[in-house]
Amino acid sequence: MSEILVPASVAPPGSSRFVRACLRQPVDRTPVWFLRQAGRYMPEYMAVRKNHSLLEICRTPQVAAEVTITAAERLGVDAAIIFADLLLPFTPMGLDFEFVNGEGPVVHQPVRSLAHVEALRTDRAEELGYVAKAIEIVAKHFEAPRADGDTLGIIGFCGAPFTLASYMIEGGSSRNYIDTKKLMYASSLPGSPDAKAWPLLMEKLIAVLTEYAQQQVNAGADVIQVFDSWAGALSVSDYRDYCLAPTTELIKRIRAMGVPVIYFGVDTASLLPTFSETGADVLGLDWRVPLDEGWKLAGSGVAVQGNLDPITLFAPESVLEARVKEILALANKRPGHIFNLGHGIVPGTPVDNVIKVVELIKQHG
To answer: What are the helix (H) ranges across 271-349?
Structure first.
């Protein structure tokens, strides 16, 4: 693959504290935002859901922007992540899916062979332009500095090659990823009829995701988060052999757009040293590893994001405050810490507790 220049790791003048933290630059305090901060725990979002399905919200720029803006303003966070779904690129690739109550996303014709992969399209990524239009609305809304003089960070995102491939191949969520790994391993068998399926799938996903990310950056996203939600299902060897190269290529292409990249996965402490090889500016840490240990595994050359257990948001205020202060203490004021959860806010979470965390960061961070 051709060499792509990456941007210098210095925040442009006037950058938000969020962007500066992504690039390990000095900040006046720790920036804070939350995974899934616009979601089913928030009454304002549920009011919108009464009239729109999840996909309707994602595909209607004004509505997607509304729920994005409402959550960021209600919580008082330092960044807004655009309301979208990881699987949106499937549709222009020719793979239909839907959300089924109690099951989550369902792909009715899973990708299980080389022929299936060959049928996937890469020439219709412009159909995802509704996400960029939503980002334009959000960026315009937040373009002026806030009361503290800082501007709000705008986050775009996409899925990582492995995680999107797993949904395509399994047909939805999975516990063991058997079919995904079978197709992945087939690439190591030259005589297999599907030996070329995995590398071709990675290539096609990278092509579509690159164009998708570029649309978001052009629209005003100043950071892109790459979700590799299910990479924790892989051993270090399998990740290195089958996923590291395509993930690195995608991240390199996005960084060449002039924005930092956050790379996030769940239950991935064992993969953090390898994740650092992708070139991502920020690595997301979940709650299963203390923040200082996770940062040590990731290496000194990256920023980190995390890592409060989302269920701690249900705890009494004294426990919640103790856990927040513990994470801040483990970060020890090193440049490059972004406070977040170790995964997304879950339904039923008390909104007041989420706001309390933001207030604690502003007091102590």
So the answer is: 272-275, 291-298, 317-331
Gap between the Cα atoms of 63 and 131, Å rounded: 11
- Residue located via tokens 């092509």: 207
Torsion over CA: 37, 41, 47, 48 (sign): positive
For 341-362, b where at least 16 C-beta lie within 10 A, e where not — what string?
bbbbbeeebebebbebbbebbe
Predicted confidence (pLDDT) per residue in 5-50, tens digit? 344 456 776 789 999 999 999 999 999 999 999 999 999 999 999 9
CA distance 152 to 146: 8
Beta strand residue intervals within the chain, DSSP E: 79-81, 97-100, 104-107, 153-159, 223-227, 261-264, 282-284, 303-308, 337-341
Q: What is the mean pLDDT of the chain?
A: 95
Chain-centroid distance, C-alpha 172:
18
**Token couple for 188:** 């190591």
Read off the amino acid at residue 198.
W
Would you give the distance in Å from CA 150 to the centre of its chain?
Answer: 23
User: What span, in angstroms and rounded, lies between the C-alpha atoms of 212 and 253?
Assistant: 11
Between CA 48 and CA 197 the distance in angstroms is 40
Q: Residue 81: beta bridge partners?
A: 155
Q: What letter represents residue 327's amino acid? A: I
Read off the pLDDT of residues 146-203 as tens digits, 9 standing for 90 and up.
999 999 999 999 999 999 999 999 999 999 999 999 999 999 999 999 999 999 999 9
Question: CA 227 to CA 58: how far, in whole Å?
Answer: 17
The span from the CA of 245 to the CA of 338, in Å, is 26
Residue 360 backbone dihedrals phi, psi, to 5 degrees: -65, -40
> Contact at 8 Å (CB) between 160 and 227?
yes
Give the residues across from 283 on adjacent strands.
263, 304
- Quickly list DSSP for 98-140: EEETTTEEEESS---SHHHHHH---S-GGGGHHHHHHHHHHHH
